[in-house]
């Protein structure tokens, strides 16, 4: 009974409103009584005397053959009765677990569905993936579920997807300097691609403040692009901006995935490399409920150099390289805004002539000599 009691403890049902405590307790008491009543007992003196007399009669041939059939059947019936009671108790426990499996620790029946596993968050990206994400079931994004049908549904939300690696000294620069470079890089990415004001097309002041004002070529391009954008001065090279009169974000979540690394730079510096993809769900401001997504992959290489050796501003980032792959936005439109394509609206800009690509494929580098003509995407 001890072993049975321990097993029953795993399936206690006091938490289940379908089985009142008093009913369950009465059931357990009745079951224990039945087990005690059916258990073998020590025979009395009278019973031992009768048994011995019958044995002597059997030895003298005074009893008919097969006389034990009755008692043997009774004995077998009693054992079957014992196991029947045990079976009822165990069956009741199994039934309770079936109704409420959460009472048993862990997940003994593999209750987690494949759909739940498919929607669980991905771990942080630490190395370059070897292939594009697998195809998702075809689903139409909605206002309630703007990432439906997208691999990004399992990506981290916003800044949570920009994980800063653990800092350590490199190239004669202390761990503290490395950490400073990493945190400033994250701030630049967040303020350039996730800040709600930046996304609404406002001036990205916090992002610009991270950049070294002494690097006049980079600051000049960006400042001119924000003030008077054109093909040679495009703020979209660094900032994600939507025309607030044309579209608005769906919800407040931008999905983010990528990684950040660092090494010793060439200018007595800490060099940081960032490779991140951002997915923006948007809807038109004309009252339509059609949801579409713009996907942007950004590559950023920055440094913090030793101000004792180079003419730099302490605590500011120097941009060494940047690149971007913008998908589902009008090509050859240089007004400083992203223009997502909607199936219910006429396209903006020229028809695409370039290759078809998967905007979620992070396994391939953004080669500088790649075809940058206006192309199409295999999915959004």
Automatic annotation (TrEMBL):
<feature type="transmembrane region" description="Helical">
    <location>
        <begin position="81"/>
        <end position="99"/>
    </location>
</feature>
<feature type="region of interest" description="Disordered">
    <location>
        <begin position="31"/>
        <end position="74"/>
    </location>
</feature>
<feature type="region of interest" description="Disordered">
    <location>
        <begin position="341"/>
        <end position="380"/>
    </location>
</feature>
<keyword id="KW-0472">Membrane</keyword>
<keyword id="KW-1133">Transmembrane helix</keyword>
<feature type="compositionally biased region" description="Basic and acidic residues">
    <location>
        <begin position="31"/>
        <end position="65"/>
    </location>
</feature>
<feature type="compositionally biased region" description="Low complexity">
    <location>
        <begin position="123"/>
        <end position="139"/>
    </location>
</feature>
<feature type="region of interest" description="Disordered">
    <location>
        <begin position="110"/>
        <end position="152"/>
    </location>
</feature>
<keyword id="KW-0812">Transmembrane</keyword>
<protein>
    <submittedName>
        <fullName>Uncharacterized protein</fullName>
    </submittedName>
</protein>
<feature type="compositionally biased region" description="Polar residues">
    <location>
        <begin position="112"/>
        <end position="122"/>
    </location>
</feature>
<feature type="compositionally biased region" description="Basic and acidic residues">
    <location>
        <begin position="359"/>
        <end position="373"/>
    </location>
</feature>
């Amino acid at each position: 009974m001890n072993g049975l009691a321990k097993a029953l403890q795993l399936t206690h049902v006091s938490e289940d409103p379908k089985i009142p405590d008093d009913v369950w307790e009465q059931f357990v008491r009745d079951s224990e009584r039945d087990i005690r009543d059916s258990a073998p007992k020590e025979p009395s003196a009278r019973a031992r005397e009768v048994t011995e007399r019958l044995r002597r009669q059997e030895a003298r041939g005074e009893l008919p053959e097969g006389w034990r059939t009755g008692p043997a059947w009774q004995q077998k019936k009693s054992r079957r009765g014992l196991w029947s009671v045990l079976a009822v108790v165990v069956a009741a426990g199994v039934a309770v677990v079936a109704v409420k499996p959460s009472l048993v620790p862990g997940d003994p029946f593999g209750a987690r569905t494949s759909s739940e596993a498919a929607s669980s968050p991905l771990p942080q990206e630490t190395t370059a993936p070897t292939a594009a994400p697998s195809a998702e079931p075809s689903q139409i994004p909605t206002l309630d579920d703007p990432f439906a049908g997208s691999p990004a549904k399992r990506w981290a939300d916003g800044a949570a997807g920009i994980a800063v690696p653990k800092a350590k000294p490199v190239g004669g620069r202390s761990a503290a300097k490395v950490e400073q470079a990493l945190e400033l890089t994250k701030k630049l990415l967040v303020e350039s691609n996730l800040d709600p004001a930046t996304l609404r097309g406002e001036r990205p002041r916090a992002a610009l403040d991270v950049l070294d004002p002494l690097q006049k070529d980079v600051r000049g391009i960006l400042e001119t692009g924000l003030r008077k954008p054109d093909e040679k001065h495009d703020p979209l090279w660094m900032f994600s901006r939507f025309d607030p009169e044309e579209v608005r974000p769906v919800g407040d979540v931008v999905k983010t995935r990528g990684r950040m690394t660092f090494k010793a730079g060439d200018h007595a510096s800490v060099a940081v490399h960032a490779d991140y993809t951002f997915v923006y769900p948007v809807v038109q401001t004309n009252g339509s409920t059609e949801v579409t997504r713009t996907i942007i992959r950004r590559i950023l290489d920055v440094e913090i150099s030793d101000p004792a050796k180079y003419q730099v501003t302490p605590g500011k980032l120097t941009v060494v390289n940047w690149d971007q792959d913008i998908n589902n936005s009008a090509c050859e439109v240089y007004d400083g805004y992203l223009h997502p394509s909607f199936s219910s609206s006429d396209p903006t800009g020229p028809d695409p002539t370039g290759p078809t690509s998967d905007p979620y494929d992070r396994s391939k580098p953004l080669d500088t000599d790649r075809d940058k003509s206006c192309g199409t995407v295999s999915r959004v």
